[in-house]
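Worked example 3. Consider a protein that binds fe (ii) ion.
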Amino acid sequence: MINLTEFFKKGYYFGNVSEIFPDIEQFKFMSYKIIEPDLNDETHWVCQQQIATNNKNIPEYLNQKILPHMVSLSVGEERKEIVYEYGLETISHTLIQKNPNKDIMEYFKNYCTKYVQKIYNREEYSDFHQSIQCFIEGSKLNPHTDSHNGSDCVLILYLSNDIWDNNGGELKITNTGDICKPIHGNFSLLDLTKNDIRHEVTTVTGAFKRYSYLFRPSIKK
Ligand SMILES: [Fe+2]
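Given these inputs, the predicted complex is written out as structure tokens:
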């Protein structure tokens, strides 16, 4: 269980979803249902990719081409070849679900809200950001801070039903090296009010698909 003094001191907490959802079987059902859409289906997923533009090898025209961060799956595949060909650095690479099932998102949101409200002593939130992400082989996030004004925290639930065998995709706290494995039932919570610590997601390897639900509640100022 979360120790609030420690949480606000360290800025992060790794826990188990049994602390958030009262019915684990229902949580399992919902989490496997939301990740059903085929990862090759353009109608369900888009690719979010950011490529470092500080490499002098990038021809000007290519630079223009790779700048938009959110692209279709096929453009994402094209870029992979470009990245390889020119030896570029990928800052981030993830797949985002376009229109996740509303009822399931509502279910996640309701329990996550209750959990977070207790920690931050909030009566209600005026805004929520939530998304379903998938990191496939080669996906990663370089060290960064989330820095969202008005948000209390970021909560990430891991939803994959694949067996994780040291396949990366861990949330790593850059300074301490602490990691949260992306195994079904784990979650990570990052405080943004007093901390906003640097973190990263290590490169996913092999056939493991790192699915996650990301939740960020805020209060409009
Ligand atoms: Fe982040």
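Take a moment to read the result before moving on. The helical segments are 4-10, 24-34, 60-66, 73-86, 102-120. Residues 45-93 form one domain.
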